[in-house]
Backbone:
């Protein structure tokens, strides 16, 4: 939530001087999100390996990662290279590897970065061995486990799991462990469903690791995680680390799953009113899909939030208002559930905050984040830059 | 369409050296799209004022705009400033103006740039006069006309049209004309519907201009346009200029409206296969919504193309294949209509091209475009940079 009502006078001028639309980050809310999950996961005896894909900002990494050796997950080689350039050393690239990307991974290894790749097929394991043999390097790999039929991975009980682990351990590459992601947890709208999904994720990863060890191989990393399940683990015995990303900013999809409250949403899009359609009772804003993204992640949730819920400039949710349409640089706000907007309360030029459906998607539309620290008497203002591209 | 089969040997090496995913532009197709529409509109006696929002690249502007005085449309002040920095002088910012943006417009006017703003309310007209009075400048404005109930604007027959024009002509600002956009043309799937939408757009703009002139005021600019209607005008009497943007790259939404062929699509996303799910007969690619955008513009068309159609690395459409799901850095390709994919034909590391649903949205996800000129024996390769932000 924006909480701009508690900005200092200096911050208010800084805030007003930024042209809309822009991404506003409430730093204390962000910091609290980071510490809450870290405490929970470390309290259960596992490491937290935050996913960098939501933030993709090296300035943000200083808060996300306590030390240069803190574990981190990335979704692109570009993120890994950016983190490596700042001295972060413990990286998993958690998207299936294609051999065209291996030279950049090998280069990071040469620089002393512990960069690992992910795969789920015999074909990829052979490709990796072949590359490592040709380039005289030893790229470590994890095997992706399918815990819930969501996307890719090897079922924990499959013969192929052992076969792939053997190809990696006996070849030029190296084998570091298993990794799974409970993607189906985004469909769990009941607390017990989330607890079950979390337990299932743990069980699948532990089963895979135990089978590999029973076959005589080491399995150092047992990695699980998704923001919904990360909030719901009861017991992490056998798990070495948990990955999550969206918890850093949180969003309406997560609020719809009851894994956060609206007040935990740390990133909002600040927008200006640019017109009205009195006949249709619409407010036009300068935040279209370029600023909000076109994400419709709440469309299949019990409460559909359109393209985002609306807060006033002080951070209070305007009940019943939604962004119902986005074009490139236009958004349309309407009252849902039969409400009526008093358009005179929203003059052209006035500012609103839009709570995002999906923080990863909304943040991806912004090359810079405008970060306000509302704690203390002389709260700061920082610009964080986003690492772009692949 | 990619047409990579006709790349020269040098180009093939350049193409292979670019890490996926990336935006590939077939330059001859792009150039042909530009000249086709320019010929048509100029042949009907109007000027073409291309919309820069699709391309947002100054390198591309050299092809889009024949001279530094060529008319151009923008959707952000940032685009206008970028074009102004390169000496382009004739700019309409075609999104409703909020007064917070006026200082940057005034600065461009000071630099000799003819930058105009758009508004559709008495409130905005008074705000503009007030600003111009306070800052001793004369910002020119157009009035947005609502021709089809799509979004904003003043109906051409409304009393308010004359009232706003009078406020502008009698105040510190200045009045340059009227502008409309047939946004509803995106719903016209029959040729005759498109012709009707085009005629309606012309009629609304001409009616508005004539009413303003009948009230004793000048109305120099009579501006209309959308890519679907731009292909369908029969007669542009009374119209001074036509705006369109997506025609530069074209896309599946436009192909679905029959205003282009698949072979006219100039921009595709090149992606690598990163895995398979044999049980589900899925191909995983490294193009998720970060590379493709999450646009689902074909969802409401007769032919739903998912998140994009699939071409092989030589540019041939792979019949029946679609990107059915996108996550941040994963796409899933499936055979629709009961087909089956022979996964062995798509090994990990092989490349595919994805035809985009919506060129504006897909291009917006890429800071750089990789442009291949396939004409001639020594075709070139260029990188075009995208102007980012607001």
Residues:
């Amino acid at each position: 939530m924006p909480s701009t009502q508690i900005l200092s006078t200096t911050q208010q001028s800084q805030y007003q001087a930024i042209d809309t639309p822009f991404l506003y980050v409430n730093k204390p809310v962000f910091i609290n999100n980071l510490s809450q999950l870290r405490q929970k996961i470390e309290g259960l005896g596992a490491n937290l390996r935050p996913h960098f894909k939501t933030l993709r900002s090296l300035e943000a990494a200083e808060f996300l990662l306590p030390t240069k050796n803190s574990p981190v997950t990335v979704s692109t080689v570009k993120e890994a290279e950016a983190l490596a350039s700042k001295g972060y050393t413990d990286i998993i690239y958690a998207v299936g590897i294609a051999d065209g990307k291996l030279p950049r991974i090998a280069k990071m290894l040469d620089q002393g970065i512990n960069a690992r790749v992910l795969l789920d097929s015999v074909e990829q394991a052979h490709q990796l061995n072949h590359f490592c043999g040709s380039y005289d390097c030893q790229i470590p790999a994890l095997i992706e486990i399918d815990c819930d039929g969501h996307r890719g991975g090897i079922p924990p009980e499959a013969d192929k799991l052992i076969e792939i682990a053997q190809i990696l351990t006996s070849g030029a590459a190296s084998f570091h462990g298993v990794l799974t992601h409970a993607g189906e947890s985004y469909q769990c709208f009941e607390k017990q469903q989330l607890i079950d999904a979390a337990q299932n994720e743990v069980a699948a990863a532990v089963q895979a690791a135990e089978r590999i060890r029973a076959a005589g191989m080491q399995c150092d990393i047992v990695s699980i995680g998704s923001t919904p399940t990360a909030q719901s683990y009861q017991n992490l015995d056998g798990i070495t680390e948990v990955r999550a990303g969206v918890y850093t900013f949180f969003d309406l999809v997560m609020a719809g799953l009851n894994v956060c409250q609206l007040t935990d949403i740390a990133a909002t899009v600040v927008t200006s009113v640019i017109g009205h359609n009195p006949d249709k009772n619409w407010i036009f804003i300068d935040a279209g899909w370029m600023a909000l993204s076109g994400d419709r992640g709440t469309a299949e949730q019990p409460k559909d939030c359109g393209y985002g819920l609306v807060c006033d400039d002080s951070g209070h949710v305007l009940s019943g208002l939604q962004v119902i349409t986005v074009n490139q640089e236009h958004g349309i706000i309407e009252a849902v559930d039969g409400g009526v907007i008093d358009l005179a309360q929203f003059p052209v030029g006035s500012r609103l905050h839009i709570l995002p459906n999906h923080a990863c998607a909304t943040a991806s539309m912004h090359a810079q984040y405008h970060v306000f620290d509302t704690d203390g008497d002389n709260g700061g203002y920082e610009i964080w830059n986003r690492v772009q591209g692949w």
About this structure: The domain at 51-244 of chain B is CATH 3.20.20.10 (TIM Barrel). Chain B has two domains: 4-24+259-385, 51-244.
